[in-house]
Amino acid sequence: MHHSFTSILLKWFGENGRQLPWRTTRDPYAIWLSEIILQQTRIQQGMAYWQRFMERWPHVEDLAQATEDEVLRMWQGLGYYSRARNLHAAARQIVELGHFPDSLEEIKALKGVGDYTAAAIGSIAFDLPAAVVDGNVYRVLARHFGIDTPINTTEGKKTFTALAQELLPPKQASAFNQAMMDFGAIQCTPQSPLCLLCPLQESCVALREGRVEALPVKLKKLQVKTRRLSYVYIRCSGLTAIHRRGEGDIWQGLWEPLLIENAAVPSFDGQLTLLRQDVKHVLTHRILLADFYLLDCKERPQIPDDYVWIEEKDIENYGVPRLVELLLQSVSEHR
Question: What residues act catalytically?
Fold first, then answer.
């Protein structure tokens, strides 16, 4: 099974691989330069920059002698400028080393080079048997082998890296890695992949099970914000004050006692008691940390106009969020 996947893929690559200028050379400098430029750049745009860099600085020694300003000017329009600064720093590292590093560890020690880039340079320039794993590779493997482990989890990275490494023919690492990249870019594309014309259609699990669009699986990472709330339950001659939460925020339409957010609790006339501190309440997008206070007073304090005064016993007729329920519980325990 695995053997046939690899041989079909390599045959496809022989017939359909992209003609790219850095593929006609074994010069590690030229290959490294192309990989850094293509980290966050489309091939069409990257090619022109690669050619300009190679013409101006044909050898790594030339690039190392340039000033950072010259390199940044040449890079202008590519964005993510830390790549250019890393490129320049790495050129100087290489010159200091006296040769282009030819082991994965040494290549990875270059500034701006991670696992993927190191495997690409190592396999293409030095035939090191290291599999590249990027978005294209995740997609091809997830679909072909029907793997639904999310690709942006530690387990997913492990699973796919191990599988890619297992499929890689040690003596043809360069061709295999480039075949995987091209296959994902041309054939097994994110949207509308060319399944009808795919040489791997007979063994593709996703195609057989109708799951092509569903794979690979990526977990949505939610930005979790923490909000700090202070609730003051006011008890004033048997009355308490509540208001209804407005639109466009959590708990729309539910009621709550006096809320102070992102500010210190002001001083009131009367007795203020801290009932509970840092009560943690977890919602999908945010974590709430709330402090509960009880204010016993004789005169009604100054509070915003949208609060209504009700009899304490009537509060159970109003819908309140779970966090306010906990507050009311603390108030009744304090009696």
Answer: 35
